[in-house]
Automatic annotation (TrEMBL):
GO terms for molecular function: penicillin binding. This is Cell division protein FtsI (Penicillin-binding protein 3). Residues 309-621 form the Penicillin-binding protein transpeptidase domain. Residues 95-257 form the Penicillin-binding protein dimerisation domain. It comes from Herbihabitans rhizosphaerae. It is found in: Membrane. InterPro entries: Beta-lactam/transpept (IPR050515), Beta-lactam/transpept-like (IPR012338), PBP_dimer (IPR005311), PBP_dimer_sf (IPR036138), PCN-bd_Tpept (IPR001460). Its main location: membrane.
């Protein structure tokens, strides 16, 4: 039976569904709208791919730029940037070397170092921190000063300290040195903004003892880096031997919180190089002898009314300086109260005209040349014309017969000039040079002066009238003693020295190189002159006493010479008739020399009881020497010899 028209009753094919309202057709019978949607997909995919490419380009370009910058930074600019970064965060710190000690010949310490601290501060940085705090920065500064005063006492001047804390500077030292480590720790624990830096306080236990020799070492305050250690010698051996005493500081790199003036960040130390401590210096001086000489010289200068004075004690054989003193000295521990005028060493830096002690040169030249003997007699007039000058003796007399021993024992200027004429100018000039005059001794002390001797080619008519009697040339007290050391050492001059050895940090002792001796005269000449100059301290009846009997020491033969030299008068340009250099040089004992002593007094009161001679001071010094070193008594006393016939 046929279904009705209109399709009613007709079963749809399997798997298909007639499209209903709101349902799309499947298969080929699709609505036009659906076909439109399918056709629009191709341009959408194209746009999507375009967006992906653009996004990739946007990512790639900065990556390439970053890569190029990385190559530039790590390649071309790596060194410069690394150096800049290191400077911004790293600080090199010196690891201090321990400064060597200075001792006398017996190990007595004259200078050594002990660990201490310096206190520093950053006013600008600290003031900024207290801008908004109660009480403000001034209250904090006052609190710091009060605590430092309580703990450190006289090391703190409250006004000066407050001025430093309130100053508009980036860095300042509050206390440059001398704060004990325990005190510094207490201060920094209470006030972390106070910086404590390592220092080594230089101690001088004898204070003024040998200060002109040892000198002074201190810390520099002009270095803006508080982590740099700069204890250096300023004067004396502390200065001239600074490289030996200082050693080599170590090095350490650390990171700091605020650049090189900042606080070290714990645990950042690296690149460690250990410090090498300095060597000790062992001197030739004897501390006890040095002390005695300083005291005796200072006392005698005061009693004589002299402007000043110097003295030296030397070993007769080795030239070692056992003591060297000036009447004015200083205390290296006195800080700002040290008088700069007392910090020199005139015994080696300040020449003077020696006067009659220089007659030793004339005597040695005359004996060496064979023109006289100690017993030979010479008629000596009261005056002698030389060129346009008339020379006199220190006392008026007519023509007298002097032995050669008497010429020097009585210190006759006229007799000495007659001897010098027999020697001759050229030969006399050669002997002056052999005695080392006009040249530095090389003792090892800074600022040594060479003295002066007129060159032979520049001598005038009166030059040879002055030099044989010790005027017209100059020398230091050390050079003067060196002349007598040559005679005491059988004619061989050994240049003096004051450093005996270096003692390295490992205990190795390195002796200082001994200078070679210089033959001045023969052994026989030296002994003859030495014996002849015993007449100077001779006390005998009549006119047979020498000029320096006050220098005699009971039980010992003494050989020596007094000296009185006129000082130039700046007002007249001539020699003064009232101001003198008074000198004495002597040998103890003359028969078996052990020590030489040289003394100079500058412008003493010539009319006073102690102003005319340094012989009494020699006696006192020589007496102490004989006692301290148990010098055997002379086998026989000095023979009394005729001086005037």
């Amino acid at each position: 039976m046929r279904p009705p028209a209109g399709g009613q009753g007709r079963r749809p094919a399997r798997g298909r569904q007639a499209p209903g309202k709101g349902q799309p057709r499947r298969g080929n019978a699709r609505p036009v709208a659906n076909r439109g949607m399918r056709l629009s997909r191709r341009p959408q995919a194209h746009d999507h791919r375009k967006r992906v490419v653009v996004m990739r380009l946007l990512l790639i370009v900065p990556l390439v730029a970053a890569l190029l910058q990385l190559v530039n930074v790590q390649g071309f600019k790596a060194g410069a940037l690394a150096e800049l970064a290191s400077k911004q965060r790293s600080t090199e710190i010196e690891l201090p070397a321990s400064r060597g000690s200075i001792t006398d010949r017996n190990g007595v310490q004259l200078a050594f170092s002990v660990e201490s601290r310096a206190l520093s501060y950053r006013p600008q940085a600290e003031r900024a921190k207290y801008a908004d705090k109660p009480g403000g920065y001034d209250a904090r500064a006052a609190e710091i000063v009060a605590y430092l005063k309580q703990l450190l006492g006289d090391k703190v001047n409250e006004k000066e300290m407050l001025d430093k804390l309130r100053s508009d500077v980036t860095f300042t030292y509050l206390v440059n040195n001398g704060v004990e480590p325990a005190q510094a720790r207490a201060i920094t624990e209470r006030f972390p903004e106070v910086i404590a830096d390592y220092r080594a306080t230089r101690e001088y236990p004898g204070k003024s003892l040998a200060a002109n020799i040892v000198g002074l070492a201190n810390w520099r305050t002009d270095d803006p880096n508080p982590h740099k250690h700069n204890l250096h010698g300023l004067i004396g051996l502390e200065n001239s031997r600074d490289n030996v005493l200082t050693g080599e500081p170590g090095r350490q790199v650390v990171d700091t919180a605020e650049g090189k003036d900042g606080v070290v960040i714990p645990g950042t130390a690296r690149e460690l190089q250990h410090a090498t401590d300095g060597s000790d210096l062992e001197l030739t001086i004897d501390a006890d002898l040095q002390y005695d000489l300083q005291q005796r010289l200072t006392g005698y200068v005061e009693r004589s009314g002299a402007k000043g004075g110097s003295a030296v004690i030397m070993d007769a054989k080795t030239g070692e300086v056992y003591a060297l003193a000036n009447d004015k000295t200083f205390d290296p521990t006195a800080g700002q109260f040290r008088d700069p005028k007392t910090m020199g060493n005139p015994a080696v830096t300040t020449p003077y005209e020696p006067g009659s002690v220089n007659k030793l040169v004339t005597a040695a030249a005359a004996i060496e040349a064979g023109v006289t003997t100690p017993e030979a007699v010479t008629p000596v007039p009261g005056t002698l014309r030389v060129a346009d000058h008339v020379m006199h003796d220190a006392w008026p007399h007519g023509t007298q017969n002097f032995t050669t021993a008497g010429i020097f024992g009585k210190s006759s200027n006229i007799g000495t000039l007659l001897m010098a004429r027999k020697v001759g100018e050229d030969r006399f000039s050669e002997v002056l040079k052999k005695f080392g005059l006009g040249e530095r001794t090389g003792v090892g002390l800074p600022g040594e002066a060479p003295g002066s001797v007129p060159p032979r080619g520049q001598w005038s008519g009166t030059t040879f009238a002055n030099l044989p009697i010790g005027q017209g040339l100059s020398m230091t007290v050390l050079q003067m003693a060196g002349m007598y050391q040559a005679i005491a050492n059988d004619g061989v001059r050994v240049p003096p020295r004051i450093v005996r050895a270096q003692v390295k940090p490992d205990g190795t002792r390195v002796a200082e190189e001994r200078p070679e001796g210089v033959r001045v005269v023969t052994e026989q000449t030296a002994r003859t002159v030495r014996d002849m100059f015993r007449a100077v301290v001779q006390k005998a009846p009549g006119q047979n006493s020498g000029t320096g009997p006050a220098a005699a020491v009971a039980g010992y033969q003494i050989s020596g010479k007094t000296g009185t030299a006129q000082q130039p008068d700046p007002a007249t340009g001539r020699y003064s008739d009232s101001k003198y250099w008074i000198t004495f040089a002597g040998i103890l004992p003359a028969d078996n020399p052990r020590f030489v002593v040289g003394i100079m007094l500058d412008a003493p009161n010539y009319g006073g009881p102690d102003g005319r001679s340094a012989a009494p001071l020699f006696h006192d010094v020589a007496s102490f020497l004989a006692q301290r070193y148990n010098i055997p008594l002379s086998a026989v006393p000095s023979p009394v010899v005729p001086l005037v016939q």
